[in-house]
Amino acid sequence: MTVDALTDVSGLRVGHATRTGDGWLTGTTVVLAPEGGAVAAVDVRGGGPGAKETDALDPRNVVRTVEAVVLTGGSAYGLDAASGVMAWLEERGRGIRVGADPAHVVPVVPAACVFDLGRGGDFRARPDAATGRAAVEAAAASEPGAPVSQGCVGAGTGAVTGVVKGGVGSASTVLGSGITVAALVVANAAGATVDPETGVLYGELFEGRRVEYPAAEVHAAAQRRLAETAARSTPPPLNTTLAVVATDADLSKAQAQKLAGTAHDGIARAVRPVHLLNDGDTVFALATGDRALDAANPLALNEILAAGADMVTRAIVRAVRAAEPVDGPGGAWPSYGELYAGR
Fold first, then answer.
1. Are 177 and 136 in contact (CB under 8 A)?
2. Fewest CB within a 10 Å sphere: which of 1, 96, 133, 190?
3. 0.70 exceeded by the pTM?
4. Within the chain, where are the H helices?
5. Spatial contact of 15 and 26, defined as CB atoms under 8 Å apart
């Protein structure tokens, strides 16, 4: 049984820590790998990324696997959440052995952040090490293959796409080969996810099904509402879409990096414009290695690459659809579901 989410890749677990109220509108999301880690890579396309340990994932460097990936709010301040995840992993002896004592490990925990500072009203309300620990504990406590909470949770709590509320989304597929490919995104884009001419989500145009466009009067009302709220909530030009794309295929670091790179196509289909100098768009790739690629077919990776991009697009659509509206001291951001109810 699948749940159409990142946790369909066997061994991966997802946990969120969410902070709202009293000036807070932020959080952290942790993707926890199976014990022993997963092959990992990253591809950064935005011109203003906020990240930690991404250089370690370069295929030329020694680190091959990671125990967890952290996605967090709080801009660069929020990267401190990774410290809480590292501490939790160290307590369990999970990480790279650096001495004769099994307790002497250094967990490599790549992290990336989105800009949500002040969206709850308090600029200083941002994730820290305790938030990261709460998120990894939630991941560890979840059942294998558990559904992934989506919308305004974890790192997507304060996310915004254009002038519409963003959030966390996830999706998965099983290929004809039996290999699973999945994605989890934090949609917090400077660009728009909604076509201003029609009201349809850009990503829906690539989902391979008939698109139902909003009625003209519904779209007109939505545009009026957005114009009213935009004056209160001018989005800062510092936003980012983050993604983790994962598979149970046995990939090398170089193959995983190719997967991370092509998964950016999924962002480009769903967000316009994308990969700007003030974006921090970052995609991590994880491969758990449970299923071998067809060694006789040098192009066997291609279907995984194509599926990764498709899952990122679908996850962005789900993130925007699952988001709930926010109207508070830090600003007002309607949700897509509120603007286009019933669609």
1. no
2. 1
3. yes
4. 81-91, 129-141, 216-230, 253-270, 302-322, 336-339
5. no
* Structure confidence at residue 273 (pLDDT): 93
pLDDT tens figures, 200-216: 999 999 988 889 999 99
Q: Which two tokens stand for residue 1?
A: 């049984």
pLDDT band at 262 (very low <50, low <70, confident <90, very high): very high
Phi, psi for 17 (deg, rounded to 5):
-125, 125
Distance separating alpha carbons of residues 223 and 213, to the nearest angstrom: 15
Please tell me the distance from the alpha carbon of residue 280 to that of residue 77, in angstroms, as a whole number. Answer: 15
The secondary structure of residue 279, as a DSSP letter, is B
Of the candidates 330, 46, 53, the one whose C-alpha atom is nearest the C-alpha of residue 186 is 46
Cβ-proximal residues to 210 (8 Å cutoff; 6+ apart), any chain: none
Average predicted confidence (pLDDT) for the chain? 95
- Look up residue 201 and give its DSSP letter: B
Cβ neighbours, 10 Å, residue 296: 6
With CA atoms as reference, report the closest residue to 161 among 342, 336, 340. Answer: 336
Torsion region of 67: left, alpha or beta (phi above 0 gives left; psi -120 to 50 gives alpha): alpha
**pLDDT at 238 > cutoff 90:** no
> % helix / strand / coil in the chain, to the nearest 5?
30, 30, 45
Residues 160 and 77: their CA atoms lie apart, in Å, by 18
The CA distance from 175 to 1, in Å, is: 15
> Residue 179 is encoded by which pair of tokens?
């290999």
pLDDT band for 234, please (50, 70, 90 cuts). Answer: low
Strands 167-174 and 180-188 turn out to be antiparallel
pLDDT above 70 (res 237): no
Give the separation between CA 131 and CA 143, rounded to whole angstroms. Answer: 21
Residues 6+ apart with CB under 8 A from 77: 117, 126, 127
